[in-house]
Amino acid sequence: MGLGQILFCIVIGLWLILEIYLHFFHRRRAPTADAEKRSKFVMLVLLALGPLGGRILSPSFAPAFLEPFVPWRYLGILLCIAGLALRLTVVLRLGRHFSVDPGVDTDQELVTDGVFRRVRHPSYLGLLLLYGGIAVSYAHPVGSPLAVGLPLAAILYRIRVEERILVQRYGAAYQTYRDRTRTLVPFLW
Q: Which candidate, 74, 128, 159, 186, has a CA 20 to 30 Å from the CA of 177?
């Protein structure tokens, strides 16, 4: 393994440590509705299959990944770091209110400042940057599209579930916030 693969593995390892921490210490204790349970299952399956899909479906994946990293593959590592940093920023901003389970704490106010000023789902944007970085680092015709495509599908599904919960909880305040911000990409979408 070369430097690129080592750096990639370190960044992905840090991300996995963060996600394990979040799944153990940032979960809602209240029972969840069936749609919320289903969205969590869809998320876990597609988020895991995305980066593993190329390895599973294509025998050429492993040798291709072990090819020396060229500068644009290092860009993938930078995208992973940016995504990880954004996700961590959201976790820190929401503090005890951040959860891997959809829902809103009864005492939680609607957050519309900081990273939430222009994007309603910055944590998911962080994940998409990370998965996009994985795709760029893979540089593989099968693995790269799966690495970003399947997580994108999962995240879009989960956003629909969460948006319904947020409208129910915050009503007109959330609808006003939704009207003036983008879902995932500032100034675009």
A: 128
CA-closest candidate to residue 69, choices 138, 169, 157: 138
- Per-residue tokens: 142: 């099968």
Helix axes 71-94, 3-25, angle to 10 degrees: 20
Domain boundaries, the chain: 3-22+36-180
Report the 10 Å Cβ neighbour count for 56: 11
H helical segments located in 61-142: 61-65, 71-94, 122-138
pTM over 0.90, yes/no: yes
In the CATH scheme, what is the code of domain 3-22+36-180?
Answer: 1.20.120.1630
Residue 38 scores a pLDDT above 90: no
